[in-house]
Hints:
2 domains; 232 residues; 10 strands; 17% strand; single chain; Tetracycline Repressor, domain 2; alpha+beta
Amino acid sequence: MRAIFKEGQLILVTETDAEREAFAAWRPDRKDHVFWFDGGSERGCALHDLGPREDACREPINVTYESRDERWLPISNLALTPFEMRGRRYASIEGFWQGLKFAGDADRERIAALHGPEAKSAAHGQPKCDSFVFDGQACASGGPAHHGLMLQACRAKFAQHAGAREALLASGDRPLIHRVRRDSKTIPGALMADIWMRIRAKMRRTEIEEEETPEAADGAATRFSQITTKSD
């Protein structure tokens, strides 16, 4: 195989039938991969495969319901990811969140069954309130208690919905962001992304503990359910 050096490029050219056959088999699975040059010597060098570019470079993932990359859709608050929290069933995080803008149980229950754009627009036209009551607790809109409810709801979702949990863990160590046209004033995108990453880190620690202590696997479901009620 012949090497050609150009500015910003190292070009490898196959010269024999055996090299062409080997390269043809190797090439398809290496598209968009990043390689590390180890410095080598005057006799040659090795290029080490660090994996797909997006993972090797830890490219941020913008989690939105409109994303073209469907791998991350289950992480979105608008995704259909049914879960239960405090004895109530919700079709999506968005259905839970928008329902808090209503005082009546009937309205909250109705919106709890929604997901996607329908859930997001459920409270359009609803008068803005500085506070609300949930389970007998008064919370300031956009305050710590309000954010704490979002954290609890997301924990419940990722603990109970396998597809959402798998998507979150599949994001690896890549930073998660939530950038939309109009950022929320009650749960800004930066805070929302931080909640996802905190939950991801905690779930990954749980997985590591199970690998190190196989006998703990039987308690996995119990620990995941505890995530829905405990705070960091």
